[in-house]
Amino acid sequence: MKQRENENPVIEYLKLLKKHGRLDSKAMIQAIDVLSEPENPELLKEYFEEQSVELADIALNSKPFCVPDETADGPIRFAIADNKQFIGFYPSECHFLIAGQTGTGKSTLLKIIFAQALLLNEKQKRQDNGKDNLLALR
Amino acid sequence: MKNRKGRTMEKIICWLFVKAQDMRSLLKVSRDILVVTFNEIKLNPLEPVPGMKANEWASIFADLWIQAFRLYEGSKGFLIECLNTLYLKHKDLGFYPSLFDLYYYVRALNFPAISRNARYQESVLNRLGGMIYGSLSSVIDCSRGHINNLISTHAVFEILYLTSEQQVFIVNYLLSYLFYYKMIHENNLRHFIGIDDANLIFDRSFELRPDLGLPIIHHLLTTVRKNKINIFACTQTPHQLGASIHSNSFAKIMFSLSNGKDIEFMSQNMGIKDEEQKNYCYKPEPREMTIKFSLRFQEPFLATVPEVNL
């Protein structure tokens, strides 16, 4: 998509932080301070001088993909993102297409998914047994 | 099993179709897994799904057969005719015919040497002969197989010693049976089906030949909400897979690929348009994968397969 010409650089910066999983309340408060005075170029300059280390770090060390948040997780976990976020899915979410050359981890991934599914069955079974025991106590 | 809201919880049944023996390590997680090596199991592909009429199953079987063995429409009609006659003959006997019965029935038919029927007969016999005298002969020599028990059993099907046609046929037969069984009989099972090297089953050439009928896998992928079957298809050459898997996957995962065509194909498929991201797909780190979910967190992202002792 072609970037809009009049996009506010502060908003752009916030989007960048969000993409790389670095958007926190401190960054939001700082951005709001600058955005509340749109006619003050000095404030904008000062703001970006302060953020230059963060920007350089993103440019040098970050991979060009989004960092997933907790919405990418599910009960059947199969991977871990760079930000230590677990990646998983729900049993009702259907069909996986897994592409990769030999030796890259396709079979390991299949094993993990199926092992997790088997463990999920066991977990549900244990929970049910626990509930049954509670009902019996009543 | 019921969840907190009182709804019945689904039990997940795992089926894996693999061309190696390494999936046996799942036995470390659960001992309730059957490893099917196609030596001791019995299957009769002519045994209809319970609740289905024999002539309905005959059409399904004929589709499976001609897709697996690359026959033509004419042979399909011929096969359906033979099957229906055979089912009628066996109706009074109280058991279903086997592939052996079908072979001997077709072989006994007499047609003028220069006729279409003789050609169909030869094509069908040729494939049936390979099947009943090949490595599956001890599997299919029965009238009632173990398939109904398999439906509620975790199983690893090791198809490595079967010919490619037999692999296609067996996988499609098992999946078709499961699909129609679940259509007819409501149960509380969700099936996870893992297919290693899925090119054989999802081959896009099937989609380019509509005269063969749509492969069962297409139905499985498009009517998932009804039948609760999840497919996990692994491939080394994603561009050779049929469109149904590409357009119906919740998750697309790309590990390192060596063929630029495949990388471009997957990048496009996953909606990766950013040049930097595209370039990164050519040099991921070991065990690193690009993931794209379709219903939540829809941006492509990177993750790593953890090292596990399995």
Overview of the molecule:
The complex is a heterodimer of chains A (138) and B (310). Chain A is mainly alpha-helical. Chain A has 2 domains: 9-61, no CATH class; 70-137, no CATH class. Helix content of chain A is 54%, strand content 9%. Chain A contains 4 helices and 3 strands; from the N terminus they run αααβββα. Chain A has a two-stranded antiparallel sheet. The longest helix of chain A has 32 residues, at 106-137. The radius of gyration of chain A is 23 Å and the shape is elongated. The model of chain A has no long low-confidence stretch (mean pLDDT 83). Chain B has 310 residues and is an alpha/beta fold. Chain B folds into 2 domains: 11-39 and 146-304, 3-Layer(aba) Sandwich (Rossmann fold); 54-132, no CATH class. Chain B has helices at 54-68, 73-91, 99-108, 116-132, 147-150, 164-184, 204-207, 216-222, 224-227, 243-248, 260-269, 275-280, and strands at residues 11-18, 33-36, 154-158, 189-195, 229-235, 251-254, 288-293, 301-304. In chain B, the strands form 2 sheets. Chain B has a 5-stranded parallel beta sheet with strand order 2-3-1-4-5. Chain B starts with 10 loop residues before the first strand and ends in a 6-residue tail after the last strand. At the A-B interface, β1, β3 and α4 of A face β1, β4, β5, α10 and β6 of B. β3 (96-99) of chain A pairs parallel with β5 (229-235) of chain B, so a sheet runs across the interface.
Strand content of chain A: 5-15%
Tell me what portion of residues of chain B adopts beta-strand conformation.
5-15%
Low-confidence stretches of chain A at least 5 residues in length (pLDDT < 50)?
Answer: none
Radius of gyration of chain B: 21 Å
Distance linking N and C termini of chain A: 62 Å
Side by side, the strands of the main sheet of chain B go 2-3-1-4-5
Mean pLDDT level of chain B: 88
Structural class of chain B: alpha/beta
Q: Judging from the principal axes of the Cα atoms, what is the shape of chain A?
A: elongated
The succession of helices and strands of chain A, N to C, reads HHHEEEH
